[in-house]
Design goal:
The complex is a heterodimer of chains A (115) and B (113). With 115 residues, chain A is mostly beta strands. Chain A has no helices and eleven strands. The chains are: A mainly beta (115), B mainly beta (113).
Chain lengths: 115, 113
């Protein structure tokens, strides 16, 4: 079972470069999320998509854009990378709908370094 | 504002001893609470959740958590720790009606042989 798949696993960028992190889920989930994980700060929500065709800002959206390409795929784009965006990025998905269903399933993460 | 606090950065226990990882929360309305575990270089895995009902919730790998409304706590417990339980543990609460999770900062559990 693939679950949530993220690509790439690792990436090194120079300041100012752009890149897109890809995420796909095969569980027919409605909702998808992008988080960043920094030491001592837990996971912070960047953007989320409650359902296909909708996206909303989370706690730390600045410097990022997202696209919900279809029900399966939710990509995160850094238009002009900054060293402050060095982090581990996680994509997650959930059934959505009523709150009780919202167990989120996570990908393995993308480790991004911006020099 | 909804929030979750994990007061301990690290918890150390000996294998075979009981373990507790603490979590307190602040929410408006009824809380929907979760515990997740993260093994090195992996994504988060769901352990258990409290929605309503019995205050003692049982989850994966022998873990359980006790919901205490008066103390606004949701501590994670296990009667007998294993070395393989060593990992990073996150408590989380659902914010409002959006399904968004708010995470605590995480607690590293170290189980020594």
């Amino acid at each position: 079972n693939a679950g949530v798949t993220q690509t790439p696993k690792f990436q090194v960028l120079k300041t100012g470069q752009s890149m897109t992190l890809q995420c796909a889920q095969d569980m027919n989930h409605n909702s998808m999320y992008w988080y960043r994980q920094d030491p001592g700060m837990g996971l912070r929500l960047i953007y989320y998509s409650a359902s296909e065709g909708t996206t909303d800002k989370g706690e730390v959206p600045n410097g990022y854009n997202v696209s919900r390409l279809n029900k399966r795929e939710f990509s995160l784009r850094l238009e002009s990378a900054a060293p402050s965006q060095t982090s581990v990025y996680f994509c997650a998905s959930s059934e959505g709908g009523a709150r009780a269903k919202n167990i989120q399933y996570f990908g393995a993460g993308t480790r991004l370094s911006v020099l | 504002a909804q929030s979750v606090a994990q007061p301990e950065d690290q918890v150390n226990v000996a294998e075979g001893n009981p373990l507790t990882v603490k979590c307190t929360y602040s929410v408006s309305g009824n809380p929907y609470l979760f515990w997740y575990v993260q093994y090195p270089n992996r994504g988060l895995q769901f352990l258990l959740k409290y929605i309503t009902g019995d205050n003692l919730v049982k989850g994966s790998y022998g873990f359980e958590a006790e919901f205490n409304k008066s103390q606004t706590s949701f501590h994670l417990k296990k009667p007998s720790a294993l070395v393989s339980d060593s990992a990073l543990y996150f408590c989380a609460v659902i914010a409002g009606n959006t399904g968004k999770l708010i995470f605590g900062q995480g607690t590293t559990l170290q189980v020594k042989p």
